[in-house]
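Justification of resources, computational component.

The compute hours requested in this renewal are based largely on the per-chain cost of generating structure records like the one below. Each record pairs the submitted sequence with a full structure-token output. That output is archived, and it is also reused by downstream analysis tasks.
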Amino acid sequence: MRKKTETLLCVAFMELLRKYPFPKITIQKIAQQCGVNRQTFYYYFDNIYDLMTKAFEYELIRESHMYEETSWEAAMERFLCWMKENRAIIKNMLINVESSYMRRAIYPVIMRSMINSCCPNQSVQNRDAESDEFVRHFLVIGITQYILEWVESDYKESVNDVIRKLFFIIKKVYE
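The structure output for this chain reads:
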């Protein structure tokens, strides 16, 4: 039951985000859309930004199927195409939400794709786990920022160009 209610809240938030500017979306509206009360919302999430992060990841998993891909490039292509196809939602969030919240919403999606698809080379594997985690974290922060700048530029580069540039950096680190 817990997962079902959490999913309903995520879906309701994304549906409302397609219809209304972010500042017009209230916890009350989200709860009403799901047929639950405000307290139920707070049982699952601390605030609307918590929900935004979870809903963003849920939507990407459900809609883009990016985690079904076996290569990092294919997963990122699905992710970036989803962002372009849902530019109204992304713009709504960028205009109305501080960029730090957007980074927090995108970061786990990219981190998960890195963990699932990128394998460190021998020199990276010989490092301790803490160093490897630092390298991955550093790359994900950079990729997240680059993607946000790509969105802010109104998707001027093609998806393939973005992936090619990002994969170039990743290969340099992991080869």
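The two ends are 45 Å apart (CA to CA). The CA atoms of residues 12 and 30 lie 6 Å apart.
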